[in-house]
Amino acid sequence: MARYALGIDGGGSKCDAALMAEDGELVGWGRGGPTHIHYDPPDVISASYVDAITGALARVQGGELWAVGHLPEGAPREAVLAHNKLIRHIPAAEEDTAFASAQEQWGLVILAGTGSFVHGRTSEGRELHFGGHGPLLGDYGSAYAVGLLGLRAAFAAHWTEKRRTTLARAIPAALSVAHLRAVFDLVYVKGIGRRQIAALARTVDSEAGHGDTVAIRCLHRAADELAEVAADLIGELRIRDLSFPVIGVGGVARRSQIWWDRVCRRLSDVAPHMRPVVPPIVPAVGAALLGLREMGVDWTASRISRAEETASHFTPDSD
C-alpha cells in the first residue's frame, strides 16, 4: 500500500496542506481560510482545515497516511479518514516545521506573517520563544505591524514634505475605496480586522520597491522591532559567537526583500557568523518532510530536490 505524508500548517490568515509521496514528490496541495482561535469562530476554523485537507487529498484515494501538524477532531479528521487510512498523527509546532523547511536542526526561526515570533534552539536542545502575543501585545515586525505603520503614514502624508508618500493613494486603492476619509470609516466605523490590516503589508512593500522613502522607513521600522527581539533571544541563548542559521518564514520574510535585508543587517551586528536562510519550501511542505521522517524515510538529497521541484508547481506564490 502506498504511503504518504500530509503536512498541515494553520495560521492567522490561511491554512495550507501538502501531500507528499515517499520519494519526496508533492502530489497534492490544498488551501483553506484562517485558523486562529482568538479571531475566528470554531465553524470557520474547522471549515478552513477541511478545505485545505480535502484539496491536498483530492488526487489520491487510498493509502497509508502520516499527518503532521494540527489536525482537529471532528470534520477535519473525518476529511482525512474519508480518503486515506490514518496511521499516525504527529503534532508539530510552527518552529518545528520551519526548521524542517530549511533542513536545519537548530538555530533561529523568525516568523513574520500576519503575526510574528522568534524561536531559538541550541545544538544542545535549549529553546526559547519570544513573541506571538497578537496585535496589541506583540506581533513585532509582522505584516500587521507593517500594515499599521503604512496606514499611519498615509494619514500623515499631508503634514510635511518629508512625510509625503504614495501610500496616501495606494492604501485606499488596496482597500477598494476612493480616499483616506473612507479608510477612516473602514477602521473606526466598520472595524476592519487584523487580517485586513496585515494584508496592507503587500502595498507598503510594493511602494517601497518603487522607491517611496516613507514606505521604506515603515519596513525598516518594523524590521528593527523584530530584529531587536531576535537579538535579545540570541543573547539569552548565548550563541552570539556561533555560526547558526536564521530562518525566515511567513509572508513578510519570504516576500519583502527590503524587510528581510534589514533584519539580517541588524542581526549580523549582534551575531556576525549567523547565516540567513529563506527556505525554498513553505512550512506545510516542511511538515510533510517531518512525516517522511516519522515513516523512517531519510531526507536524501534527491528527495529534498524532488520536494523543492514539485512544490514549486503546487504551492501558490502568496503565503
Describe this structure in words.
The protein is 48% helix and 18% strand. By secondary structure, the protein is of the alpha/beta class. It has 2 domains: 3-93 and 281-314, 2-Layer Sandwich (Nucleotidyltransferase, domain 5), CATH 3.30.420; 103-278, Nucleotidyltransferase, domain 5 (2-Layer Sandwich). It has a 5-stranded mixed sheet with strand order 3-2-1-4-5. Strands 8-7-6-9-10 form a 5-stranded mixed sheet, sandwiched between helices. β6 and β7 form a beta hairpin. α5 (143-155) packs antiparallel against α9 (213-237). It is globular, with a radius of gyration of 20 Å. The mean pLDDT is 94.
Number of helices: 13
Could you estimate the helical fraction of the residues in percent? 40-55%
> Strand fraction band?
15-25%
Annotated CATH homologous superfamily of the largest domain: ATPase, nucleotide binding domain
Radius of gyration: 20 Å
How does the helix and strand content classify structurally?
A: alpha/beta
Overall pLDDT: 94
User: The CATH topology of the largest domain is what?
Assistant: Nucleotidyltransferase, domain 5
Q: What would CATH call the architecture of the largest domain?
A: 2-Layer Sandwich
- Unreliable stretches covering 5 or more consecutive residues: none
| Terminal Cα span | 33 Å
Which CATH class of the largest domain is shown? Alpha Beta
Order of helices and strands: EEEHEHEHEEEHHHHHHEHHEHH
Sheet with the most strands: spatial strand order: 3-2-1-4-5
Please give the number of β-strands. Answer: 10
